[in-house]
Amino acid sequence: MKWGGLILSVVLLLAVVSAGCVGNSTGTSSKATTKEVTVKDFSGRNVTVKVPVQRAVVLSTSALEIIQLLNASDQVVGIPKEAQYDALLSESLKNKTVVGSMLRITDWEKVLALKPDLIIDLDLKKFYNVDELLNRSASYGIPVVLLREDRLEDIPRAVSLLGELFGREKEAKAFDDYFNEQVKEVKAIASKIPADERKKVVMIQPIMGKLYLVNGNDVLAQAVRLVGADYLVNITFSGYTPVRVPMDPEKIIASYRDADVVVLLTSAVTPYDQVEKLKEEMLSDEAWKGIKAVREGNVIILRADMGKDSFLRWSPRLAVGIWVIGKAIYPNYYPDWNDKAKDFLKRFYGLS
User: Can you give the pTM of this predicted structure?
Assistant: First the structure.
């Protein structure tokens, strides 16, 4: 589990959490008179920040996608190495000073030289020493706001919080309204799916030669339930519930024989062609056919990487991702999602 957790942390943090008026933020940063506000971050901490923030160090790519959505890229001064791989981020944002990787600050001298007025990171104690970050930042007088990537509803919540901090409340509300409307429309379709047509779903993500199950506490499993299906995986180890669980093929087959749909996911380190090869192997393997979905050919590949057309990440992308999942599981109930994707990318990122 230690090695599996390490590998998984690499992938999740590369693929972690997209909208804004223009992809390459050219709007001027908010120059209004600053004031102090106290906000509650996702860890439950009360944090006092001077707003609008003008010089943020942001260590999460999902937060960077939100900041670009808010048209506030010019209010960022430091980024993580992983930002280079996120296809939704503008070149101007990717060209900011790299100060860390994997949620960790690796060069505090660079950070201090940038004179940040805020650090934004994720509250993920399994992946790095959060307390060390908080203590060291406090010693320099730099406030830290922590986000979490647990739930679907936390996406608009994070957008609203960062909108307040960056003085971009109008942009935040525009996205939150859009996101909530997508969820409302999906729920309306899901409510019309008869009980005897509900699908049982399992998601598998191949990572560096191993198979990982998406666990029931992951936001993608929540999206599966949102679209009207049942998600079968729910695994806890000594009170700890990881979002990905490594498992041998034999155990997957034995545990999830009744799955109606198997979804195979790409990742930041697993390209589409590798996942396609796994699908071909599964469909031609008699042992894998012990799962109903494989036997009936209901094995689907969806993208969960950092590409422009990948929407299965905790980030604003999931406004489209819920439609992608709905169409994959219930092709007769959900519409084609490509128009949704085009509208999303153009409206919030200025991408075609």
Answer: 0.91
